[in-house]
Amino acid sequence: MRGNAVTVFILFVGILNLSIGYALAVYLGYGPATLREAWVALTGNLGQVVAPERSLVEQLAEVPTEEFLDTMLDDAMEDALEDDWDDGPDDEAYAAPDEEEVAELMALEAAQDWDLNEKYVETSLLKLNIAMMKSGARATELDTRLRAMAGKTDLETVQTCMAELLEDCETYLGEQSEAADEFAGRVGELGELSELGEEVETANLEQAAQIETTISNLKHMDFVSDLESANGRLLEEIANLRIARHKLRDSQEVAFLTIARYENRLAKIEKQLYNDPLTRLRNRIGLETTLHGWWEDGRHKSRQMSAVLLGVDAFGDLNERYGLVAGNRILYQLGQTIGELIGDADMAARFAGDEFLIMMLDVGPRAATKTAELIRQTVEKTCFVFAGKRIRTTFCGGITEISPKDTDQTFIERLEHAIRAAKKEGADQAFFHDGRDMQLIESPNLGAALTDITI
Length: 455
Hints:
Layout: H1 2-27, H2 35-43, H3 54-59, H4 66-82, H5 97-111, H6 116-119, H7 122-148, H8 155-184, H9 194-219, H10 227-262, H11 284-296, H12 299-302, E1 305-312, H13 315-322, H14 324-341, E2 347-352, E3 355-361, H15 365-380, E4 382-386, E5 389-391, E6 395-402, H16 410-425, E7 430-433, E8 438-440, E9 451-454
Helix pairs in contact: 1-2, 1-4, 1-5, 5-7, 7-8, 7-10, 8-9, 8-10, 9-10, 10-11, 13-14, 14-15
């Protein structure tokens, strides 16, 4: 009897997890009509790399009714708001991608319900990020559909894609405007940081202008005389929106951290906001919050530390040529490669859209440079295979040693100077910054093997 009870309990937990995943997809606006589409919405649109096996999709057909799931989701959201979120990030391996995506999205949705007077001004910034995440997922799905029919574009499909993109632009513009207005109303509370608030406002206005331009272009676009050209124009508009969205996201992340640092609340940032749902690494918020804790503990004075910043060369061109899904999957694999080549005590994070920062503990500049070069050479010799296409990319890098006099920000400034110098030198280059000068790294062949990775 006891064995049967355990089995029933395990089955119940499994069904509960799957149920929340489906309900969340509907709740967040991905609203697929079928469970198969729900799985695609949660995995494909947010950067899932490995498609689920058919048997797993078939198992989803046994999930309870949508009404039952909606009730469970409401209970789960209520529980999430009652959790104690003051703990730091766990050092255990991340959960499976689908489970983490659910957790990440639930945390962000819960953020919409935070009391602004309790959670301060950054709540408004988080609302903008939620709107961007939803819009980005919809754009990825449209990008994939348009690329799949290139060369055989039909009028009905391209008009449907145009209508969906137009609807997304108008929906996102409304959500963004509401959140931006809310933030603008609180800029005066920033005191010495009011200039930062004005910068965020400017970035919001620039993105709104791009969205309005796209809406105007879509309404005046010719979708009849040249269907292939119309397909290309839609992809171009999606790319323009992606660039604007990522620029705003990065600026808001910096603003979030600056405000939290100014008000001495870095240690109180909710741990659900620490991880990047695409790469399974720390995001910039998680990185800098962790660094703040290290510096509070004096770790930079008691242990030797080095840092590496790696940026993908011409990543925008890669997205434009192969599509957003290919770009997302490559970023995921690059994160996996970095994780495999660094030490167990080291920490890797997605620093910005196509940049990764690595903190190396008990490692001096020579060993850090060797590891960074091994990562760079490994990526250089890796071929990503996507939909029958062979894709290659490279890293530029910056490396520096952390001194006891460094703050948790000064060494990042050196890394940014070094990687800018590397990109100026050309693709697939790296510079070491010793605190005073920068030097181009010319390393020997470290034996990285030629590798094909199907994504």
